[in-house]
């Protein structure tokens, strides 16, 4: 499954830190940011992850995140 999120992550260093935190919870997933996109896209691809948990993790780290529809 692939989920795409809109975020407010601006900096590459922030995206690296968040990817590391997400991989701690979802080690078998592919996770990346597209900071060039106007929606600062976060893509998560994997078999077993929860979109709400990803949103909460980003919020706990001071970032906006919502599922892109």
Mean pLDDT: 97
Helix tally equals 2
Number of distinct beta strands: 4
| Main structural class | alpha+beta
Order of helices and strands: EHEEHE
Biggest sheet record? 4 strands, antiparallel
Shape: globular
CATH architecture: 2-Layer Sandwich
In which range does the helix fraction lie? 25-40%
The tally of domains stands at 1
Spatial strand order of the main sheet = 2-3-1-4
Q: Between the first and last Cα atoms, what is the distance in angstroms?
A: 15 Å
- The low-confidence runs, each spanning 5 or more residues with pLDDT under 50, are none
Strand residue percentage: 25-35%
CATH class: Alpha Beta
CATH topology tier name: Alpha-Beta Plaits
Main features:
globular; 4 strands; alpha+beta; 2 helices; Alpha-Beta Plaits; 69 residues; 4-stranded antiparallel sheet
């Amino acid at each position: 499954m692939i989920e795409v999120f809109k975020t407010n992550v601006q900096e590459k260093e922030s995206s690296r830190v968040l990817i590391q935190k997400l991989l701690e919870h979802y080690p078998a997933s592919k996770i990346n940011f597209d900071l060039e996109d106007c929606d600062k896209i976060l893509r998560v691809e994997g078999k077993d992850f929860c979109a709400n948990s990803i949103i909460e993790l980003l919020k706990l780290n001071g970032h906006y995140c919502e599922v892109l529809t």
